[in-house]
Design goal:
Aminopeptidase; 13-stranded mixed beta sheet; four-stranded antiparallel beta sheet; binds zinc ion
Length: 301
Amino acid sequence: MSGSKNGTFMRRTGADGVEHRIPVGTIVGDRPGGRVTIFAGQHGTEYDGLEAAQKLYRTLTPADVSGTIVIALSTNDQSFLNWEQFAPTHPPILEMMEELATGSDLLINCHGGEFSEGMEPYVICRLLGDPELDAKARAMADAFGVPYVSFSQYRGEPPETGVRPAWWLWPKKSMSDRLRIPEITPEVGERGSRDDKGIMYDGIVNVLKTFGFLEGQPSGKPAPREIGDRYWLTADEDGIFFPETTIGKDVAEGEHLGVVRDYFGRLIQEVKAPAAAKVMNMNWGMPVKQGGFLLWLGVIK
Ligand SMILES: [Zn+2]
């Protein structure tokens, strides 16, 4: 059989009359196989996924592919074009995402740190409670090739655990749950980086090779270590955050991580590590609001 490569805009208008569009690249391989959908740029300033997905579409030909690879090259295009951080996924975008995902065997939804976020690379693996689907999700997470994995496995309200809410294990139901398709969410890149080291691109290619969409062996990185307990630190008051630690650092309990001050230098808050853990994700934006995110630490199992 002879494959094809086709790039086109998908468009959908919401109830508010605003049209949204997604540039979609579809490569139908010369050989039969499954179907995978890759989303980049659901958050428009997370550039690693956008770089990797666009490079993938640009460089692959049908001769390289078995099955079908569908790539949303800029999922939230308004967020991308306007450099809008933490953009909501408007209903028409969600509808289009579901349409692109429907019929696929696997989903890869590329995320990372936005312009004002520091991020240690990790992969979120959604477990759906079905052994066959979960084995595929775990195999994707293992193949991707980043050092850490966060399992997202329960749905509904988290149990009351006091100071350490376990919301990361109790996420809302997602498209992956609704469609019963295994999904990973790589979290790669930070502060405007553009996949300089190729971590996102190589990770996607590793998954595509593992599941036979591309020929060749995945790079065979060690399986990721699981992120266990997580500490989410927030600002006591409005102020300006001065981090004094680095992404990826293993910090001791009580270690100084930074301060929150006002414009005039008055100390509002000293930020300390509540436990020995790794700095996984940090707000690099200077202003912080009361209750707003400063950083989170993960205990690596
Ligand atoms: Zn994101």
